[in-house]
Amino acid sequence: MHLKFLSRNWLLFFMMNCGHLENGRYGMEAVSPASALRAGDAFLKQLHNTVVSPCVLHGVEGYRVVPFVDKPNRNHYDSRGGSAVKYLIMHYTVCDFWHTMHLFTEDKDSNRVSAHFVITQEEAAAVAIGREAVPAGRLIQLVPDEQRAWHAGVSNWKNDVNLNPCSLGIEHVNQGGELDSKHFYPFNKDQIHTSGKISHNIVNQYTIDPVHVLGHSDIAPGRKSDPGPLFPWGALYHNHQVGAWLDTEEIGNPDMIKKKYGLRGFPCPTKSDRGALLSMLNSYGYYRDKKDKEGHLDAKIIAAYKSHFSANQRPDLCDAVIRENDMYWAWALNVKYKQ
């Protein structure tokens, strides 16, 4: 439903059923009553001036943030402009759940950010400020599927530019990291289980190509590093049939790749070659700006690719050094997915 059709009366009616008004330090605050929350989710009652409603999101139990009618700037989204969903983009937040929700619903008129979905990590209670513990794997929708969230920013994949209008974004609450430091935080298994379940249903509903299930760093290398090398892309593929990956018998086995998919495109590389690797990555979808004559971003592209594929779960190898395994994965992905 578009916001212009919502009214204050509708919101009050909704809150009578899904939330209520409560006196707070900022005046009358909208909160989600415990009676409207599932067992173990009382922490959601502590969201500041935000009402959530229990619902099922792509086959997964979760919550939907009620639109902010009286403060439209807190709705961080707008129209897709007729664009169809063709990408699913994975992120991490680099902050805790409470800060994430604040950032994605902040009342301001510019530089707003958001994602369609947020999936919690486990966070301990903060007794000193009366804040309850946050369980891992809880799913919250802040932006309706049919609306454009502001999560991808300046981004490219193949011939598509600025992917916000044609993508859905999932934020995983996680402390994050930077490829230069090689230090990242692991993801909670319950969080990834929820991510895999909803992602599986999303890619099936929207017929999203496996190659179009990407990380923020894939579509904005050098500018973004999320979801980082510890994001378990292999688990999403093997356990939930989400995204592009190699089967166990395909890893390091060029004969199996040729047998299953035929020999097409690039020949199987036999040595490390920076130019050949970049050509394969460009063919796969990684964007190389033709204006970058000196190749200043090439190392960032290689690091982003390695974070997702050939050095996933190995932050220490997510660098600009090209190894035989990096060459093999780039070749095998191109052959398998017919790029």
UniProtKB/TrEMBL annotation:
Listed Pfam families: Amidase_2
InterPro entries to which the protein is assigned, alphabetical: Amidase/PGRP_sf, Amidase_domain, NAMLAA_amidase_2, PGBDSf
N-acetylmuramoyl-L-alanine amidase domain mapped to chain residues: 74-228
Transmembrane segments: none
EC number: 3.5.1.28
Recorded GO MF terms: N-acetylmuramoyl-L-alanine amidase activity
Catalytic reaction annotation: Hydrolyzes the link between N-acetylmuramoyl residues and L-amino acid residues in certain cell-wall glycopeptides
One GO BP: peptidoglycan turnover
Annotated keywords: Cell wall biogenesis/degradation, Hydrolase
UniProt protein name: N-acetylmuramoyl-L-alanine amidase
